[in-house]
Design a protein that fits this description.
The complex is a heterodimer. Chain A is mainly β. In chain A, the strands form two sheets. In chain A, strands 2, 4, 5, 6, 9, 10 and 11 form a seven-stranded mixed sheet that branches. In chain A, strands 1-3-8-7 form a four-stranded antiparallel sheet, with no helix packed on it. The termini of chain A are far apart. The relative contact order of chain A is 0.33. The mean pLDDT of chain A is 92. By secondary structure, chain B is mostly beta strands. Helix content of chain B is 0%, strand content 58%. Chain B is built from no helices and eleven strands. In chain B, strand 6 and strand 7 form a beta hairpin. Chain B starts with a strand and ends with a strand. The chains are: A mainly beta, B mainly beta. Chains A and B meet through strand 4 and strand 5 of A and strand 5 and strand 10 of B.
Chain lengths: 115, 114
């Protein structure tokens, strides 16, 4: 199993550009989520999904869109990049409580810089 | 929503000493409390977790305790080693659904000096 994969690993954008961060998992997990990590701020939830076709906002959703067309994929779209979105982005997946453990698995991260 | 506070933000110990990191949570419905370790430039990885129906759990040099009444839980690392140096995050899942959101503390930078 590859676990949770993310692409790209690094990205530099100019203010106003848009892009999509890709995330995929091969563990058949229903729950997937996106976090951003800034120094001293821990991991903050951007958006999450409890299954294909179902998404919801987390703590810091502004400026980001998500969709979940399949169980495996959960892309994160930056609509119009701003310097405040410079951060490390982690995708994560988890099984539901009744079927397995609660362990949440993280992808390797995408380091995004917006100039 | 859930709020998780973590202390201290930095912790420096000598090799062989014990380290304790404490977290408090706000939602009494929270029922699962994991601890993650994140080494520099890498992804967070689960090191130990505890459910709300258990007061303590140990795994070799690592232990977690939970006080539901006071709504706080702690990570204990004994006989620390330089490779324990990392950022540690506590987290809590709010119950009520099968998929409750995972809320993280702000993190503790642990440095173990040889």
């Amino acid at each position: 199993n590859a676990g949770v994969t993310q692409t790209p690993k690094f990205q530099v954008l100019k203010t106003g550009q848009s892009m999509t961060l890709q995330c995929a998992q091969d563990m058949n997990h229903e729950y997937m989520s996106w976090y951003r990590q800034d120094p001293g701020m821990g991991l903050r939830l951007i958006h999450y999904s409890v299954g294909a076709g179902i998404t919801d906002q987390g703590e810091v959703p502004n400026g980001y869109n998500v969709s979940r067309s399949t169980t495996e994929d959960f892309p994160l779209r930056l609509l119009s990049a701003a310097p405040s979105q410079t951060s490390v982005y982690f995708c994560a997946s988890r099984d539901w409580v009744g079927r397995g453990t609660n362990e949440q698995f993280f992808g390797p991260g995408t380091r995004l810089t917006v100039l | 929503g859930e709020n998780v506070e973590q202390h201290p933000s930095t912790l420096s110990v000598q090799e062989g000493d014990s380290a304790v990191i404490k977290c408090t949570y706000s939602d009494s419905a929270s029922n699962y409390f994991p601890w993650y370790k994140q080494e520099l430039g890498k992804r967070p990885q689960l090191i130990i977790d505890i459910r709300s129906n258990v007061g303590e759990k140990k795994d070799q040099r690592i232990a977690v305790t939970l006080n539901k009444t006071a709504k706080h839980f702690s990570l204990h690392i004994t006989e620390t080693q330089p490779e324990d140096s990392a950022v540690y995050f506590c987290a809590a899942i709010t119950g009520g659904t099968s998929y409750g959101k995972l809320t993280f503390g702000q993190g503790t930078i642990l440095t173990v000096h040889p």
